[in-house]
Amino acid sequence: MWLDGLYMAAPFYAEYAMVSQEDTAFNDIGRQFVLMERHARDENTGLLYHGWDAAKLQKWADKKTGLSENFWGRAMGWYGMALVDALDYFPENQPYRDSLIQILNRYAAAVVKVQDKSSHVWWQVLDKAASPGNYQEASASCMFVYTLAKGVRKGYLPASYEKAAIDGFEGVVKQFIGKDSAGNTILNGTCEVAGLGGKPYRDGTYAYYIGEKTKVNDGKGVGAFLLAGTEIQMAAELHYGRKEGQSTKVLLDNFYNNETKTNLAGVTQSMHYTWNDRENSGFSLWGDVIGFLGGTPATLKAAPTADNLSGAGVYIIVDPDTERETKVPNYVDESAIKNVKDWVNKGGILVLLANDTLNAEFTHFNQLAESFGIHFDGNSLNRVQGHQYEQGAIDIPQDDSIFRGIKQVYIKELSSITLKEPAKALLKTKDGHVAAAISHLGKGMVLAIGDPWIYNEYVDGRKLPLIFENYKAMTALSKWLLKNSKL
Question: pTM of this prediction?
Answer without folding.
Answer: 0.80
